[in-house]
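Long-time lurker. I teach an intro course on protein structure, and each term I like to show students one example going from raw sequence to a predicted 3D structure in token notation. This year I'd like something fresh instead of my usual example. Would anyone be willing to generate the tokens for the chain below so I can use it in lecture? Attribution to the forum is fine with me.
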Amino acid sequence: MTESAPHSTAVVAGAEAPPSSEVRGALRASLPVGVGLFPLGIALGVLVVQQGLSPWWALVFTSLIYAGSLEFVAVGLVTAMTPLPYIALTALLVNFRHVFYALSFPLDTIKGRPARLYSMFALTDEAYAMAVTSDRKTVSGRMIVYTQLYLHAYWIGGAGLGAIAAQWIPDNIVGMDFALTALFVVLSIEAVRAQRGLAVPLMGVTCAVVARLVDVDHMLPLAMGAFVSLLVLRYVLTRQKVAGDA
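-- Reply from a regular --
Happy to contribute to a lecture. Here you go:
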């Protein structure tokens, strides 16, 4: 009995080890998004140095904040010595959309408190889009976390490289920030293909256009609020129709 204990321990340890197929699968899935994230991270690193901060601040922003567009805003707020309450309010408004992400993000498939905490921290637009458009039958919670780790690594690596290379990059270079727009266009196309419908994308575009016309300074919360309201209304009407047909 005592001699079999090491063997059983090894079996358990082997069972808990992450399958290499999931690690490789997450790498393959994250690479197309990483192609957009990495140059965008470079742009952030360059911005950090050009704003007068030390290069290591790029790693601080990308490691601890990791909020995409908010990090670009935060660089300007920090260098302008903006009071902390205003920074907190700005962060809330810019990332308020993450509240709605929680409604459909498959957090229940992720096991373990540390993995869940990291997944919530690393819930970016790209990670959310990849998670909700994936087949839950074939994509496990571990693969979602691995994908988020890869995306985070692309972001940190790009920012670090940008901060180091900032002294050789001209200040008047343009176009690097378009990587974010191009990335979201690709993610939107993939989401439309996965959902196989135009109703939801058209609602999103309509809400964005109307919000911009109404108040460009508060476009994001207005657009997200209107979009969520339409989604809830659509859900209620669909449920009523299904109940009526039954």
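Some talking points for your students: Residues 197-246 form one domain. The radius of gyration is 21 Å.
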